[in-house]
Amino acid sequence: MSDSKKKLYVLDTNVLMHDPTAFFRFQEHDIYLPMTVLEELDNNKKGHTEVARNARQASRFMDSLMAKAPSLETIGDGVPLGDTDEEGQAINSSLSNAKYATGRLFFQTEKIAINLPDTLPGGKSDNTILGTALALQQHRSDCLVTLVSKDTNMRIKASVLGIHSEDYRNDQVLDDVDLLYRGVTELSEDFWDRHEKDMRSWQEEGRTYYSLRGPDIDSWYRNEFIYKDDEASPFDAVVREINEEDGATIEVVKDYAHHNVWGISARNREQNYALNLLMDPEIDFVTLVGQAGTGKTLLTLAAALAQTLDDNLYSEIIVTRVTVPVGEDIGFLPGTEEEKMTPWMGALMDNLEVLTQEEDHSDWEKQATQDLVNKRIKIRSLNFMRGRTFLQKFIIIDEAQNLTSKQMKTLITRAGPGTKVVCLGNIAQIDTPYLTETNSGLTYVVDKFQNWEHSGHVTLVRGERSRLADYAADVL
Fold first, then answer.
1. Residue 96: is its pLDDT beyond 50?
2. DSSP symbol at 171
3. Domain boundary residue, one of 117, 143, 166
4. How many C-beta atoms lie closer than 10 Å to residue 239's C-beta?
5. Which residues constitute the domain of residue 306?
6. 225-255 pLDDT per residue, tens
């Protein structure tokens, strides 16, 4: 079957429940919706979950598109997906970096004879969609029928039946997670030889700066860390300005290996870079990515406490995370919002214990410190973030890899003046259905914020928890 044919995409329900704007992501190609998909959207529209909201939004989009059909008789010929009225323009103009859809949306308007193997009962919704795609493949020889589904097993069954199938990839930020911005770049051996022309250095308020030009500067981003491994004279700096006319301005980073933050010192290069971002009041948004034990939560809490309790830059610390269970769900929990969130905040409590239990302090001093810290740290649920505005807060979003791009946007846009947002996560440890390393909300914000002057990112690579944890992470 030739790829030059016009394509007819049969959408599985999970595609629309994952991204309701999927209608407008297929450019000039047509879309077909089996009646089963409409039934499943209707069954999932109730509730306050992200899936329910997406199901309702998909239905609203379909209602707007149906208004374009001149009459009920023309629905069988397909409903245009392109901009034909003001409402359609409003829909498509909200899709950044997406071409306008010029294809048509087809609904199942008549019963289709479904010929499936006896091992696939027709009463199941997935199998009904497969049967519809198989029938379309037989009757629509003028186009390439493709089933689009986020369900891996659905795509496997489609392949077994001879149906061309694809994953929904339009929301993927990157083709490969290895291409994700790391926030750290090692300089080449001959870097200074190739960039010493017109280079100048100066000191300002106790900090050392360099201004330079050269071929490597074009690949740098603002607030990206650059380093050169040299036992005699190691060099660690952060890119502050990039200008086509003046070149780049870099600043030598502060050494937090010898300057502790709330009793915590950096144990490796990436931790030092992370503390430089976390302690910089000019950086409003920080993302830290790394496997378990790299120190993401501990470093962030230490910086938050230092700037909230010691420097009074922020009025309080707000900690939140998505509540996705790893094992069986423990069911409904009694108590207030904070009490309900407590079981999900084990990592927070573990790190707070490290930060507040000084060996040379008395029990009274330890308890007083603990009470003070507890008053300034608030645990909040993601479910109640919509519509709020946070002023002068230090917001920590833990396990951010389990958030979608829309959820991440909802959270970050809550930040008011004087607020700092820090996202922590391990993109190799995603527990949310239909999210992958390439379309996670954490991947999304790392990619979108990589060149903003008030944001920074570091990928932590070395575990510092214990030799047992490091070995387990490598071999298990």
1. no
2. T
3. 166
4. 18
5. 269-475
6. 999 987 778 899 999 999 877 789 999 999 9
